[in-house]
Amino acid sequence: MTVHTQPVAEAPDPRSFGLPVVEDGSIPAELRSLVSRVHDLIDVVANTGADRETLAEAAAVVEDLTGRLDVDRRQIGTMVERTMSDGTTEYGTITNIVSGDTSPVAPPLFLERVPGGLRGEVTLNTIYQGPPGLAHGGWVAALLDQAVGSASAVETSPGLTAKLEVNYRRPTPLFTPLEVIGRVDRTEGRKVFVSGEIRAHGEVTAEATALMIRVQIPE
Ligand SMILES: CCCCCCCCCC(=O)SCCNC(=O)CCNC(=O)[C@H](O)C(C)(C)COP(=O)(O)OP(=O)(O)OC[C@H]1O[C@@H](n2cnc3c(N)ncnc32)[C@H](O)[C@@H]1OP(=O)(O)O
Prior knowledge:
Elements: E1 21-23, H1 29-47, H2 52-69, E2 79-83, E3 89-93, E4 111-114, E5 117-122, H3 137-155, E6 159-168, E7 178-188, E8 191-200, E9 203-214
Parallel strand pairs: 1-2
Antiparallel strand pairs: 2-3, 4-5, 5-7, 6-9, 7-8, 8-9
The protein binds decanoyl-CoA.
Protein name: Acyl-coenzyme A thioesterase THEM4
Domain Thioesterase: 133-203
GO molecular function, one term: hydrolase activity
């Protein structure tokens, strides 16, 4: 059961922390397409059996592209503003490794508000492999950290993870749709007690409890 001991706060605007903010709708479709293609490229490169000539050619092409794209870099800490399907405004770092719009490494996990918390679906490829065919435990923790952190940010106000405990119940498989859930259980001043879980085929593979400490909003 979700218990709110404090009223839900209006999300603070990251601009008040001096951070640049980009609206998600203003991210060019071409950049989203590039991010998605590089995501697939990472998985392919990690598994390729191409011949040496093809590998050398690909390395040169990628080196050239890296040089062409390394212009006008975003400021570290750039945030993206998105509106969830229920109208809630959410902020996250644009390169967040779990859910960042412009991170080719992100699975990506996009969370939506559901009764009792946040929910998202994600399918992991070999980028996230730990044991054979299974998700790396650190990535399982990262998904859960994101889900409970976002739940805390949306249901109360943004904070940092002070403590995260993960219980790995079953192996979390690759190439399988995963349901990721985060919720706020209770708040005590700046302390937000949260929990979440990951399910594959409806069965819990990992669950977490965490303590988030809400950041102080500048006057
Ligand atoms: C924008 C939306 C983004 C949402 C998604 C984000 C998901 C990803 C989240 C992360 O990955 S965050 C990155 C990983 N976490 C960190 O790097 C945090 C590192 N730690 C810190 O910066 C500080 O320790 C922390 C901000 C968590 C707390 O420092 P403070 O100086 O603000 O807290 P303070 O010492 O005043 O303590 C406040 C209360 O919290 C309690 N507390 C603090 N740290 C604790 C801890 N580790 N364990 C238990 N209790 C703790 C502390 O006892 C106290 O309780 P009381 O009010 O009852 O006295």
